[in-house]
Specification:
396 residues, mainly alpha, 72% helix, 0% strand, elongated
């Protein structure tokens, strides 16, 4: 037992000795090697020793960071392209300085807080931060964008630069927006929404940040509770702007009365609110109440005659109404002349709507499949020449 205890004491002594010599070991090492040296020792270091270690990383990277800052500044003046890799020493120096400050401001062995490195690091690194913004904006690589944006954000939020930024940080909103964009491209919807919401405070990026926020939030709608939380967020952002989306979602989760109230209130407020009528039409169409749907869709295109998607929905409703009539009125494939006329009238009405879509969207840029619907109807009506014309247009 004594031998085991002795061995443990030797190990503890070795760890302590190693920790005390960490800066000495890192001196003369390249940055990546010094990082490995520090990381391998971190678990055995005190906060004071960790601060010294991270500060040594700053010392190692600072000359390269300073040169990079000068080169980047000159390149920007001369409008020359700068590779994203040129920013790496600046990112490293800032990140390590933030970590250094975190440990440098923890109580030492005597229980006192006596930071040693804050002023020097803040003074020499503060000006480097701004160059990260353009780089984060320009790179299309999500990982690079995130690295640059996070280095800026973390330094902004660190007490290290509190004195420098006491009047505010004019580029923080940009960095948060770039982080949101990067997280969105990496399909990290929660982080994308988190940073997009923070970026809303910056007027210059607010509109685009809002788009990321709304889109990212939709990616996690798995339960009714998720949807209700999302609806609350849309109301908080801009209830009028997202009225149609809010009403549609309420209808989808079974809150039909609330959906109708939102839509009716919107129409009462603005009788020419085309989106309110369009959503009323969609709600009715989804409920297979085609007459009510057609009524609301017609009101929509009266307000906006070039609303292609609504003309298409009119075609869907009228054609489905015709096919439903046929199912109801026919018997083993036989139908009376009078009832057949009712069916054909409905299908002909649908043809008129689809032809309007054809007129407004001949290249199928907004609604891709109208030719197939229109051809089907022409075949159903026995107008094979017109159906063949569409097939020829499709190259079939």
């Amino acid at each position: 037992m004594k031998k085991i205890i002795f061995t443990a004491l030797v190990a503890a002594f070795a760890t302590t000795s190693f920790a005390q010599d960490i800066v000495k070991q890192m001196k003369g090492q390249a940055y990546s090697e010094a990082v490995s040296t520090l990381n391998s020792a971190l678990s055995g270091l005190s906060a004071e020793q960790k601060a010294k270690g991270y500060n040594q990383l700053v010392e190692i990277s600072y000359p390269d960071a300073a040169k990079a800052f000068q080169d980047i500044t000159l390149a920007n003046v001369q409008k020359n392209k700068v590779e994203v890799s040129a920013y790496t020493p600046i990112v490293n120096a800032l990140n390590d300085a933030v970590k250094c400050d975190e440990f440098d401001n923890q109580p030492n062995d005597k229980g006192k807080v006596a930071p040693k490195f804050r002023k020097k690091n803040a003074d020499r690194l503060a000006n480097f931060r701004a160059v990260l913004i353009n780089a984060a904006n320009e790179t299309q690589d999500a990982d690079q964008k995130l690295s640059l944006a996070n280095a800026y954000i973390n330094s902004s939020e660190s007490p290290l630069f509190a004195e420098v930024l006491k009047a505010g940080d004019q580029y923080l909103g940009y960095a948060q927006f770039f982080a949101a964009a990067a997280y969105y491209n990496k399909e990290n919807w929660n982080k994308a929404a988190e940073y997009a919401e923070k970026a809303l405070k910056c007027e210059d990026v607010k509109e685009n940040a809002e788009q990321y926020l709304v889109s990212a939030l939709t990616k996690n709608l798995k339960t009714k509770a998720d949807t209700l939380a999302y609806l609350k967020k849309l109301n908080d952002i801009n209830a009028d702007k997202y009225m149609a989306q809010i009403a549609s979602l309420y209808n989808q989760i079974g809150e039909k009365d609330l959906s109708n109230k939102i839509l009716n209130d919107a129409i009462a407020k603005d009788p020419n609110n085309k989106m309110a009528y369009a959503i009323k039409g969609e709600n009715a169409m989804n409920a297979k109440d085609y007459d009510v749907a057609i009524e609301n869709f017609k009101k929509t295109v009266e307000i906006d005659p070039e609303f292609v998607a609504v003309w298409y929905n009119l075609g869907v409703c009228a054609s489905q109404k015709g096919f439903d009539l046929y199912e109801k009125l026919s018997n083993n494939g036989k139908i009376s002349v009078e009832d057949d006329k009712k069916v054909k009238d409905a299908l002909s009405e649908a043809v008129g709507y689809y032809e309007k879509v054809r007129e407004l969207d001949p290249n199928r840029e907004k609604v891709s499949n109208w030719p197939y619907q229109l051809r089907m109807l022409y075949n159903s009506l026995g107008e094979t020449d017109k159906a063949n014309e569409i097939s020829k247009m499709l190259g079939e």
